[in-house]
């Protein structure tokens, strides 16, 4: 039981008529980086807010770090870290002042606070900018400051809500290195994203769509167990071909990637390669390995991509 | 607990000192408003532009006109040939009132009892007013100024030496012997300006945190609502005291408004009112979702605080319903207290009723604010 960082059963949240999160079950082991992958408005942020106690669930049960969330929200806050989607620190305060404020809020005083702040400034490469106002920093620097503030009190469980949506690819790589450092030192991390490459870095992930969990597992398992075949079709006149293919009931989706079409054929179609050869005799067809995007498309029924 | 309150307080002071606009407002609002209102607001009307239709054209009528002008309350600016053109001038707003002197002005004058003093004359059968005022009655201040001329003595018309009439009552104006409006305005402005700035600053300070997303982070920290509120309020208590100092200081040195009362009473009364306004701001901040809404609600409180609190018009002259509404506003109570302390040297102990009311208001406000302020979203 205590080996789970997050355990949720039948977690639901309803806003009026709209069900944002629907019967979500989760069991996330300690020490892993767990991803929420899904399009905008699929309930990622709402789920995170429910799990941190920021929102009250309409129904369902949540255990965080072995304790029931309900009634323990305030105690758990010392053990949780939360990095919001929007930069939520003070623009008119300097990097150091922001850290000092957060340190004081978590009860760090005097020498202990100074040491921890210097440590974080060095760790997140902000020592040179410590006098700069947070509002005038670049997206990557803001991100590092936000992560420094969220981890100042060394939380056991860290929630990150689309942490890299305003950051360039290089800073994103850098950011993920930090997350793996944190994970290696024993922090459990839950991160939401709509980037496939980011999701692929997670130890395990859940694919969310319209408040439902559509798939759950490690990226490798999800790709290996994909209930569809992936076939690349190359040749001329791909746009009309795509229109024609997507009409067929056995074709889940067809999406153009550069000079070829990536076609997902349902598993119930026997000999998918032969089937595709017959469908488009003018083109070259070849089987290929599934990627996470294919998993996403299959589990959301092709409603969002292709 | 104190560490966290101090952290919020220090953060708030730093933010305030870096927000040039707000920081400027702290100083400029009392400064500009005081200079503006101190010079501009004057409840006794002077130099009202009026016209005259003088059908008499006698030396007596001209003497009456110059007598009227000597009072300084009216200025004769135009002479009109007939009553129609005079009425037209009132409609266009050229003049606010017109004096009509009929052609038989002189014969009316000599029959008028006010023309003679001392010796009693037999009541005349045909005693009539010597002239008529046509007044733009939409502004009651102007009407009452003209009405004050109704029973003007007419003995002096035509430079006849007369004996002075004896007034029915002698009036001794306490506390403001020179009858300067500004003496009453300056202490009142303390209440109005504090109402405006204190409510606005606190309500927007908290709503801003929510609007800019800071609140989402703060809610996930161990900070308690009461710590956040107290830490946010204290810097503005200082701001309020600075403003009281500016207003009363300028009032004393520029407008010679006396500071009769004791400083302790003044400080305590000011603190009570500042806290009352700040808690009102807190309550607003728990209701408003955006800074704009907070501002609108502040104005909703501010206008009655200016108009009903006794700042502009005497409280006693208002109808009962308006008095009840005024009683609910902290500004009304503070208006009474500060005028009593500053002008009449009253002690706080003599203003117990208003003090108790303010304390009750603060406690209720804090209760409502902390009940409504939940560390939850949505």
Relevant terms:
heterodimer, A: 306 residues, alpha/beta, Rossmann fold, Alpha-Beta Plaits, six-stranded mixed beta sheet, four-stranded antiparallel beta sheet, 11 helices, 14 strands, B: 378 residues, mainly alpha, D-Maltodextrin-Binding Protein, domain 2, four-stranded mixed beta sheet, 4 strands, elongated
SSE layout and pairing:
The complex is a heterodimer of chains A (306) and B (378).
Chain A: E1 4-15, E2 18-29, E3 33-37, H1 44-52, E4 59-64, E5 67-68, H2 73-76, E6 80-83, H3 95-105, H4 110-123, H5 139-150, E7 157-161, H6 169-184, E8 188-193, H7 196-201, E9 204-209, E10 212-217, H8 219-224, E11 228-234, H9 238-247, E12 251-257, E13 260-266, H10 272-279, E14 284-288, H11 292-299
Parallel strand pairs in A: 3-8, 3-9, 6-7, 7-8
Antiparallel strand pairs in A: 1-2, 1-4, 4-5, 9-10, 11-13, 11-14, 12-13
Chain B: H1 2-18, H2 20-40, E1 48-54, H3 59-70, E2 74-79, H4 83-92, E3 97-101, H5 105-111, E4 132-135, H6 140-147, H7 181-211, H8 214-219, H9 225-253, H10 263-287, H11 291-307, H12 320-328, H13 330-344, H14 352-372
Parallel strand pairs in B: 1-2, 1-3
Antiparallel strand pairs in B: 3-4
Helix pairs in contact in B: 1-9, 2-7, 2-9, 7-9, 7-10, 7-11, 7-13, 9-10, 10-13, 10-14, 13-14
Give a concise summary.
The complex is a heterodimer of chains A (306) and B (378). Chain A has helices at 44-52, 73-76, 95-105, 110-123, 139-150, 169-184, 196-201, 219-224, 238-247, 272-279, 292-299; strands spanning 4-15, 18-29, 33-37, 59-64, 67-68, 80-83, 157-161, 188-193, 204-209, 212-217, 228-234, 251-257, 260-266, 284-288. By secondary structure, chain A is of the alpha/beta class.
Task: Write up what this structure looks like.
The complex is a heterodimer of chains A (306) and B (378). Chain A is α/β, with parallel strands linked by helices. Chain A has two domains: 4-218, P-loop containing nucleotide triphosphate hydrolases (Rossmann fold), CATH 3.40.50.300; 227-289, Alpha-Beta Plaits (2-Layer Sandwich), CATH 3.30.70.100. Helices cover 34% and strands 29% of the residues of chain A. Chain A contains eleven helices and 14 strands. Chain A has helices at 44-52, 73-76, 95-105, 110-123, 139-150, 169-184, 196-201, 219-224, 238-247, 272-279, 292-299; strands at 4-15, 18-29, 33-37, 59-64, 67-68, 80-83, 157-161, 188-193, 204-209, 212-217, 228-234, 251-257, 260-266, 284-288. The longest helix of chain A has 16 residues, at 169-184. Chain A is elongated, with a radius of gyration of 22 Å. The two termini of chain A are 41 Å apart. Chain B is mostly helical and 378 residues long. The longest helix of chain B has 31 residues, at 181-211. The model of chain B has no long low-confidence stretch (mean pLDDT 85). Chains A and B meet through strand 6 and helix 3 of A and helix 1 and helix 8 of B.
């Amino acid at each position: 039981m205590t080996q789970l960082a997050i355990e949720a059963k039948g977690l639901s949240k309803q806003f009026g008529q709209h069900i944002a999160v629907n019967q979500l079950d989760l069991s996330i082991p300690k020490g892993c980086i767990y991803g929420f992958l899904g399009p905008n408005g699929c309930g990622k942020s709402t789920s995170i807010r429910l799990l941190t106690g920021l929102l009250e669930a309409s129904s369902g049960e949540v255990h965080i770090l072995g304790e029931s969330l309900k009634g323990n929200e305030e105690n758990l806050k010392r053990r949780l870290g939360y990095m919001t989607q929007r930069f939520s620190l003070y623009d008119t305060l300097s990097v150091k002042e922001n850290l000092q404020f957060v340190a004081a809020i978590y009860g760090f005083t005097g020498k202990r606070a100074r040491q921890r702040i210097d440590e974080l400034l060095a760790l997140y490469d902000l020592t040179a900018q410590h006098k700069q106002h947070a509002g005038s920093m670049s997206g990557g620097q803001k991100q590092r400051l936000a992560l420094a503030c969220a981890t100042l009190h060394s939380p056991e469980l860290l929630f990150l809500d689309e942490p890299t949506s305003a950051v360039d690819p290089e800073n994103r790589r850098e950011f993920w290195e930090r997350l793996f450092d944190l994970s290696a030192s024993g922090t459990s991390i839950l991160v939401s994203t709509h980037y496939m490459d980011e999701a692929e870095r997670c130890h395990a992930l859940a694919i969310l769509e319209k408040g439902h969990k559509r798939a759950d597992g490690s990226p490798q398992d999800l790709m290996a167990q994909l209930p569809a075949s992936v076939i690349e079709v190359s040749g001329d006149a791909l746009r009309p071909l795509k229109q024609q293919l997507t009409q067929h009931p056995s074709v889940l989706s067809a999406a153009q990637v550069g000079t070829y079409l990536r076609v997902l054929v349902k598993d119930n179609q026997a000999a998918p390669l032969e089937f595709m050869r017959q469908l488009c005799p003018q083109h070259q067809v070849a089987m290929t390995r599934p990627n996470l995007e294919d998993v996403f498309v299959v589990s959301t029924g092709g409603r969002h991509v292709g | 607990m104190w560490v966290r309150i101090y952290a919020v307080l220090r953060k708030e002071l730093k933010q305030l000192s870096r927000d040039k606009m707000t920081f400027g407002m702290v100083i400029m609002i009392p400064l500009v408003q005081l200079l503006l209102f101190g010079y501009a607001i004057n409840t006794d009307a002077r130099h009202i532009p009026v016209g005259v239709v003088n059908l008499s054209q006698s030396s007596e009528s001209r003497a009456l006109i110059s007598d009227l002008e000597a009072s300084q309350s009216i200025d004769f600016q135009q002479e009109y040939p007939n009553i129609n053109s005079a009425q037209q001038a009132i409609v266009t707003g050229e003049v606010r009132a017109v004096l009509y002197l009929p052609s038989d002005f002189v014969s009316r004058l000599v029959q008028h009892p006010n023309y003679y003093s001392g010796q009693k004359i037999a009541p005349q059968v045909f005693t009539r007013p010597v002239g008529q005022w046509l007044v733009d009655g939409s502004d009651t201040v102007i009407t009452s100024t003209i009405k004050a001329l109704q029973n003007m003595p007419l003995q002096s018309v035509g430079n006849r030496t007369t004996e002075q009439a004896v007034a029915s009552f002698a009036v001794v104006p306490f506390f403001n012997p020179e009858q300067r409006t500004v003496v009453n305005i300056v202490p009142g402005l303390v209440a109005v300006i504090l109402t405006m700035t204190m409510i606005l600053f606190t309500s927007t300070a908290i709503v801003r945190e929510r609007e800019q997303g800071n609140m989402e982070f703060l809610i996930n920290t161990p900070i308690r609502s009461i710590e956040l509120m107290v830490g946010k309020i204290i810097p503005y208590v200082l701001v309020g005291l600075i403003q009281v100092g500016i207003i009363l200081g300028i009032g004393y040195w520029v407008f010679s408004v006396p500071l009769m009362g004791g400083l302790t009473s003044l400080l305590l009364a000011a603190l009570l009112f500042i806290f009352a306004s700040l808690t009102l701001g807190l309550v607003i901040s728990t209701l408003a979702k955006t800074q704009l809404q907070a501002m609108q609600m502040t104005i909703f409180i501010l206008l009655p605080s200016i108009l009903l609190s006794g700042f502009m018009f005497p409280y006693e002259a208002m109808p009962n319903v308006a008095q009840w509404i005024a009683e609910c506003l902290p500004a009304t109570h503070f208006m009474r207290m500060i005028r009593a302390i500053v002008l009449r040297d009253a002690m706080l102990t003599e203003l117990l009723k208003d003090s108790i009311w303010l304390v009750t208001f603060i406690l209720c406000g804090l209760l409502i604010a902390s009940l409504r302020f939940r560390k939850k979203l949505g």
